[in-house]
Design a protein that fits this description.
- Helices cover 4% and strands 38% of the residues.
- It contains two helices and 20 strands.
- β10 and β11 form a beta hairpin.
- It is globular, with a radius of gyration of 18 Å.
């Protein structure tokens, strides 16, 4: 995704920028979709051609019968001037549709959704993702709202190496630093981002793109893999927390150190754009 201030922090202190294609979905079971945007930074001194997450697709097995899935979508374009919306989350529980607005909750098998004013949590027995709606500040073209996403392991907070993958998921599967390429922004003028997290992810960013929001299969997918248990004798890694949030400055702050404080685990930020 292309957005000037959103970065990938895979371990505390290590970061990457990840540029995605307009309208492309990127997998981890939590699937963000980005849209191109043009906006101002540094009090209007810099015009940035980037992108923001505008849809988040959450896909999980219901656990009720083999092959049945629940697919929920948080839509940035459903958010209004008060940063909320009547149908900001929609989806299918198996074949049954559902629509959720603020202060609503819904469960479908293994997935529990709790909606607040402009945010929602999606919880399964293994993972919890929080999606927060926000404005695109100093917007010139493209979407007027964006979504910030965080992901953390639930339960023991430990995962086995190789159990997870994807742009976000692989940060939970390795203990070492994963520094990647980052964009360097000028003090003024016009700037188009280009970094694709080179050096921090396996393969290239294009290999993580999916054809649709409900798709779960890609080259590194672990969606249908057999879960790895602690008693298999393999090293377990502290899961921490990964999030797609702004670093601050002109775009404000969502997450950052407060994520670690809230969870008691190290904060890891994964890009929704650069």
């Amino acid at each position: 995704p292309r957005h000037s201030r959103d970065t990938a922090e895979i371990q505390p202190g290590e970061m990457s920028d990840v540029r995605g294609a307009n309208g492309a979905s990127l997998d981890t079971r939590v699937l963000p979709l980005e849209q191109d945007a043009t906006f101002k930074l540094r009090k209007g001194a810099v015009t940035v051609d980037g992108s923001f997450i505008t849809e988040v697709h959450v896909v999980a097995e219901t656990g009720r019968k083999e092959g049945e899935l629940v697919h929920a979508v948080f839509w940035a374009n459903e958010l209004n001037d008060f940063n909320t919306g009547k149908n900001m989350i929609t989806g299918f529980c198996g074949k049954r549709p559902f629509f959720l607005g603020p202060m609503k909750s819904f469960s479908c098998g293994n997935l529990v959704i709790q909606v607040k004013h402009s945010s929602a949590t999606f919880t399964t027995p293994e993972w919890q993702s929080t999606v927060r709606g926000n404005f695109v500040y100093d917007n010139l073209a493209g979407p007027t709202h964006r979504l910030d996403v965080s992901l953390r392991a639930v339960g023991s907070g430990m995962v086995a190496p190789g159990q997870t993958h994807g742009l976000v998921g692989q940060s939970f599967s390795t203990p070492g630093p994963r520094n990647g390429k980052r964009d360097v922004y000028p003090p003024w003028g016009r700037f188009r981002t280009s970094a694709m997290a080179e050096g921090a992810i396996e393969g290239t960013a294009e290999m993580y793109e999916l054809p649709s929001g409900d798709a779960v299969e890609f080259g590194f997918s672990r969606f249908h893999a057999t879960p790895q248990a602690a008693d298999q004798g393999k090293l377990l890694l502290a899961a921490g927390e990964a999030s797609a949030v702004d670093e601050g400055g002109d775009l404000g702050v969502v997450g950052g150190p407060s994520l670690a404080a809230a969870s008691g685990r190290p904060s890891r930020r994964l890009s929704d754009g650069n």
